[in-house]
Amino acid sequence: MFDTIAAIATAQQPSAIGILRLSGPETCAVLERVFRAGNGRPVSDQIPRTMVLGDLLDSEGRLLDNCLCVFFPGPDSYTGEDCAELHCHGSPVVLNEGLRALFAAGARQARGGEFTQRAFLNGRMDLIQAEAVIDLIDAESAEAARNAVGQISGSLSRLVNGIYDDIMGLVSRFYAVVDYPDEDIVDSSREDMLDTLHRAESDLTDLRATFSRGQLLKNGVPTVILGKPNAGKSSLLNALLGYDRAIVTDVAGTTRDTVEETVRIRHVLLRLIDTAGIHDTDDAIEQQGVARSRAAAQRASLALLVLDGSASLDEADEAAIAVAEATANLLVVVNKADLPRQIDPGQLAERFDSVISLSAKTGQGIDVLTDAIAALYPAGAEAQGRLLTNARQADAVSRALEAVQSASSALRIGMTPDVVLTDVEAALSALGELNGKSVREDLVSTIFSRFCVGK
Asked: Which of 72, 61, 81, 56 has its CA nearest to residue 5?
C-alpha cells in the first residue's frame, strides 16, 4: 500500500455530481498537478475536511471543470491514509478525463473494493464492518440498510469481540500458568471455565440463529404463488407489483414457466415467483412447468396459495394445497371476490391459519393480504446491526460454536485443561476469521473483490 490509487466513485451516467476519489501517500502531490484552488493555496495548506472551490485540469493542464476538492489527512480518514475527493459535474466525459489526469499525475487505477480493503488493513474497520459496507450499498429495503449501517457502526463487532476477549482470557491465563509456574498466578477454576464457555455458547447460539432472518432481510423472502391453472396467480402477481408483468388471459395454462420479480410490501422485500398451474397434464412443456413450480415451492419461505373463489375445490386445488403446505409460511388467497362465490372462506379457515378473500382484478382485499404478509415478517429491533447476513459469517460462527461445545463437553467429563485448550483455540481461530483478526490473505482478496471500483 505504498502507492496512490484513484477511481470514479459514482455511477457512470450523467448526473448532477460525480466524484473522483484518491488515497495513498502521494495524494497531495497528485492533487497539486490536477487541482488549482480558487484561493491560490496548495492542497496541503487547505483546512482539512473542508470543501475548496477550484479548477480541475486535464492531463495536459487545460481547464476541464469547476469543482470542489476536500482533503482528508490520515490516519483519521476512511482508509487510514491521506485521502481526497473531487466533486465534479456529473458528466461521464469529465469524470473519465479527470481520472486520466490523476493517472498522469502519478496515481493508479484502484481495484474493486480497494479503498475499503485499505481501511480494513489499516485498522479503520474490522472485516464484519467492511462486509457491511457492500451490504449497505446493495440494500433494497430500509430494514436491510439499518442492519448494515448498524454493523458499520460496530454493533455486531462489539458482540463478537466480547466473546473473543472472554475466550482469549481463558487461553492467556492457561498459558501464563504453564509458562510461569513460579509466579503467583491464579489458574482459572473448572467452574469459571465452564461459566465462560457457557456464556460463549449461549451468545454464539443466539447469533447463529439470526442468519436466516439476516438472509431474508438482505435477499428478500422467497415467495411462491401457487394454484391450479386460471386461479388468478398472474393477476395476483400483477396486483402486488402494481403493473402488468405477467400475461393474463381467460385461457388456462398461460403461464408455463416461473416468472420472478421483486417487490417491497411495507417493510418486507419479497422475491415473488409466479408459477405454472399445478395439475396433471400430458403436455410435455406443461409438465416441465409444473415440475419447476414444485421446485420453486421447495425453495420458498412463503407460499401464496391462490384458489378460484368462483369455482368449487377440485383435485387440482388439492394438489396445489399439498405443495403449498410444505412451505414454512402459507397464506391462502381466495381470489375472484368480484364474482359469485362457490368457496366459503369460513370453511377454509377450519383448515388453514390465514385465509384472505380478494379480487386481484379489482384490487379489493389486496391491502388485507399486504397486512398479513407484513405481520408474518415484523420489523424488529434486532435488525439494528446484529444479524448475520452472509454464509461466510454463519460458517465461522457455527465452527466457533461447535468448538466451544466440544470444549465444554471435554471439561465436564474431566479432561485436563490442556486438552480442552485445543477446542478453545479452534473457537478463537473461527472468531478471528469472522472479525478479521486471523483471516487468510486470499480470503480477504475474495471478499473485497465483490465491491465496486471506487469503494
From this structure: 81
Cell of 346: 369460513
Cβ-based burial of 302 (10 A; exposed 0-12, middle 13-18, buried ≥19): buried
A 10 A CB-CB count for 438 gives 12
**95 pLDDT above the threshold of 70:** yes
Confidence category of residue 278, pLDDT binned at 50, 70, 90: low
As a whole number of angstroms, the distance between CA 153 and CA 157 comes to: 9
Asked if 156 and 140 touch (Cβ cutoff 8 Å), the reply is no
- Could you report the per-residue pLDDT of 131-146, keeping only the tens digit for each? 999 999 988 888 888 8
pTM for this structure?
0.80
Closest CA to 88 of 102, 107, 101, 69: 69
* Phi, psi dihedral angles at 362 (to 5 degrees): -95, -20
Report the alpha-carbon distance of residue 5 to residue 18 in Å, rounded. 17
H-state helical runs in 6-74: 27-34
Bond before 75 cis per omega within 30 degrees: yes
- 131: which 3 cell numbers? 462486509
CA dist., res. 417 & res. 176, Å (int): 13
Q: Angle 376-380-383 (CA atoms, 0-180°, nearest 5)?
A: 120
Report which residue type is found at 314.
D
Q: 217-376 in CATH: which number?
A: 3.40.50.300
Quickly name the fold that domain 131-208+390-448 has.
Four Helix Bundle (Hemerythrin (Met), subunit A) (1.20.120)
Question: Options 3.60.21.10, 3.10.620.30, 3.30.1360.120, 3.40.50.1360; which CATH number does 5-110 get?
Answer: 3.30.1360.120
